[in-house]
Design a protein that fits this description.
single chain, mainly alpha
Length: 489
């Protein structure tokens, strides 16, 4: 078996397990989220969302991008891995302490005092969850996505069950804190049970500088990309309160569902795959185009379809109290193209050792997001969503130009890879939106109408793709053949 064939099979089999992992987590967490949305108030979700911003920053600082260093390292030693482990553990303890101290100041910044105890309790969880950084990176490096899938299934299910039970007992926002604690602890226990690696008292201070050089840009970029999505919630809270943040998060939750179930499976193996072919320019470009094309094929119809039927689906899924999220979701799905490309530009540039390019892109995106949101926030949630979409499209061009400079991946080539699926998705969404009105008028806005519009969208998208001369079944056949050959090997 050649190296190229082996890499292709490993990548595709890993993608299958990533798909199982992401789809399961997305479905289970979404179902549980829908249940919690009916049990909790918008302000509960808003307070937890605001608290999670600071916690996520601390988590990124604690892991410091060191996991990516293990994944990318061509050959690593036990000393290298152990040095990473002890660095992450030390930084996580320090980050947790800073988190506890910073909570009151952050609460005043966002105008939500209820975030203080939530942040301080979640800080105690931080050192435990970051202990998975090294074993998870080793499993990812070795394409052991089956183990990661089992871990995600167990942690998401256990945490969700506890959250629903607490919500039924009237615990409010603490139901979400309980979900994070149980899911995090179960996930940590599962990872350590599945990973054969164990830490040892080995530490080389000389390696730390090299790790920091590689990881500091990744860490800063991850923080910027996280803030890119979440910084608007700080503006919304200061202007309109945690209740409005809850509505905005509900709209974003639909976007994240698509991300977790459709984009994450491909994106999770992107860095590993790109790193293996980083010195083969033509193959690198071909793999990138294939990944982006598959991602667009799955994501564009899902996002635009959600936008088309959100007036029917959101009240059915979450309840009438979330009606304010409907126009927000209709606007946010319009960023579908830059949303997909963002998922692959980062891994592509990291694999060719250009983390600073990622940092520059993220800084530009965050700066414009802050400026656009500051202008739009007085006019309400829909204006804030429109500001985000406008920023995404504006910054997509320099992002793709930087990618072309460092990898040779041209904007024209990327456009050719995604254009058929995008055109089919736009046509499908327009047709479904036009048909939804008469269906609601005749049959009402119940589950029958919602299901009918979703099925109609799926059939229309497939029909339009066939009409354009593109067979979506080809990608499915490739996946199935890869699995069959893997079993025979």
């Amino acid at each position: 078996m050649t190296h190229v064939t082996s890499l292709k099979r490993s990548t595709m089999v890993a993608s299958l397990w990533s798909i199982l992992r992401s789809v399961w987590v997305a479905i289970v967490t979404f179902v549980l989220f829908a249940v919690l949305a009916r049990l909790l108030a918008p302000a509960d979700f808003g307070v937890f969302a605001l608290a999670s911003i600071l916690v996520q920053i601390a988590t990124i600082v604690a892991s410091a991008g060191f996991g990516n260093a293990i994944v990318r390292e061509p050959a690593y030693s036990e000393t290298f891995v152990n040095t990473v482990f002890w660095c992450v553990l030390g930084m996580s303890i320090l980050a947790a302490a800073l988190l506890i101290g910073a909570a009151p100041f952050y609460a005043r910044l966002v105008g939500a005092e209820g975030t203080v105890p939530v942040i301080q309790w979640l800080a105690f969880l931080l050192p435990l969850t970051t202990l998975t950084t090294v074993p998870s990176a080793l499993l990812t490096r070795n394409f052991q996505h089956k183990s990661l899938a089992i871990q995600s299934i167990a942690s998401s299910l256990s945490g969700g069950i506890v959250a629903v039970a607490m919500a039924l007992q009237g615990w409010g926002v603490w139901s979400l804190v309980g979900q994070a604690f149980v899911g995090g602890i179960v996930g940590m226990a599962m990872i350590w049970r599945m990973s054969p690696w164990r830490p040892a008292l080995k530490f080389d201070a000389r390696l730390v500088r090299g790790l920091l050089v590689f990881s500091s840009s990744i860490m800063a970029t991850q923080i910027l990309w996280m803030l890119l999505v979440r910084v608007q919630e700080i503006f919304i809270s200061r202007w309109h309160g945690p209740d409005a943040v809850g509505h905005y998060r509900i709209a974003w939750r639909l976007i994240e569902l698509i991300s977790q179930s459709l984009l994450s499976p491909i994106g999770s193996v992107a860095l590993v795959t790109f790193s293996h072919v980083q010195d083969q320019r033509e193959r690198f470009q071909a793999i990138y185009a294939r990944m982006v094309g598959i991602a667009g094929l799955a994501t564009f119809p899902a996002l635009l379809g959600i936008g088309a039927v959100s007036p029917i689906l959101l009240p059915l899924l979450f309840g009438e109290k979330w009606a304010a999220a409907i126009p927000v979701s209709e606007v946010l799905v319009l960023m579908c193209v830059p949303f997909v490309l963002n998922f692959f530009t980062g891994p592509a540039l990291t694999s060719v050792n250009r983390p600073r390019a990622n940092l520059w892109i993220a800084a530009l995106q965050l700066t414009l997001t802050v400026i656009f949101t500051w202008i739009a926030v007085p006019y309400g949630l829909v204006a804030v969503a429109a500001a985000y979409v406008a920023r995404a499209w504006i910054t997509m061009i320099p992002q793709q130009l930087i990618l072309a400079r460092h990898t040779g991946i041209s904007l024209a080539g990327t456009t050719r890879a995604i254009l058929p699926a995008l055109a089919a998705a736009v046509a499908m969404a327009a047709a479904v939106r036009a048909a939804a009105g008469p269906l609601v008028a005749r049959f009402g806005a119940g589950w029958e109408t919602g299901t009918a519009t979703v099925v109609m969208g799926l059939l229309l998208f497939a029909a339009i793709m066939f009409a354009l001369g593109h067979d979506p079944r080809r990608e499915i056949r490739d996946l199935l053949q890869t699995v069959r050959k893997q079993k025979e090997a």
